[in-house]
Amino acid sequence: MSDSLPPPPDTAPLGSPAPRRMPAKEHRSDAETAALMDAMLARYSWRNVLVSLILGVAVGAAFAWFIIPTYLPGMVHSAVGNAPKAYWYLSRSAGVIALVLVWLSVVWGLLLTTIGKMIGQVASIVDIHRHLSWLTVIFVLVHIFVLLGDKYITYTVVTLFIPYADTAYRPFAVALGQIGYYAVVLVSVSFWVRRLIGQKSWRVLHYLSFVAYGLVVTHAYLAGTDSPTLYWGYVVSVIVVLFLTMLRIITALTTKTATTVDA
Questions:
Q1: What string of DSSP letters covers the chain?
Q2: What predicted TM-score, i.e. pTM, was given to this entire model?
Q3: Which pLDDT band holds residue 68 (cuts at 50, 70, 90)?
């Protein structure tokens, strides 16, 4: 019988592979996140963005001049008639899509800091998050400019972009939507200036996403919710954002506590 003591738990017999040690920190540092975002933005130069815009305009022109007149002649008649309604419906449809997109952008941003790190797909979620932000900007522009063709309320470029410049239709609700749009634009542009302002400043600026979402959903509710489906859609979207926000807070607190205990 050997009188030697058994090896300690963290050692292994000679010749066996060394045990794999888990990193002390499971979350990415600011420097790692910044490097990841730099690599992604490098794939999307201004030249690529310009080409995408040109293709988008070409597709839009094809729809406006060929596809819609051919397959939806009633919409064309409504647009050029004495009391056109197509502009109002198109604007409202684009507004609903923009609301869904800004909601998805917020949801994806929250998933980035929770589920994204758990499944190791942070890069993909950041990429989708950025695309959703710019899609929101585009659909809000459609939502705004289509109203220039409406004859029931004679909007101008000034009244469409300056809060309270026109009081013909629910000025408070319209002003909330205009301010929310500017917040969406600021968040979207921040992706391109992140290296100039720094990772921490960019992260603080990104909290405007919550402000933009709150303003846009309030604008949508006050500016003319006459559909129960849309109303309950707003309610469900708010519940999802609140749930993911609480999940993010709890995850951050749990990670901080675990890091403190390990230290």
A1: ---PPPPPTT---TTSPPPPPPPS--SPPHHHHHHHHHHHHTTS-HHHHHHHHHHHHHHHHHIIIIIHHHH-HHHHHHHHSSS--HHHHHHHHHHHHHHHHHHHHHHHHHHHTTHHHHHT-HHHHHHHHHHHHHHHHHHHHHHHHGGGG-SSS---HHHHHSTTS--SS-HHHHHHHHHHHHHHHHHHHHHHHHHHH-HHHHHHHTTHHHHHHHHHHHHHHHTT---HHHHHHHHHHHHHHHHHHHHHHHHHHHHHHHHHHH-
A2: 0.68
A3: low
**Cβ proximity of 209 and 187 under 8 Å:** yes
Six-digit token string for 20: 């794999």
pLDDT digits (tens, 9 = 90+) for 189-211: 887 787 788 878 888 888 888 99
Q: 3-state secondary structure string, 184-231?
A: HHHHHHHHHHHHHHCHHHHHHHCCHHHHHHHHHHHHHHHCCCCCHHHH
- Cα 186 to Cα 205: distance, rounded to the nearest angstrom: 8
Residues 120-144 pLDDT 10s: 556 666 777 777 888 888 888 888 8
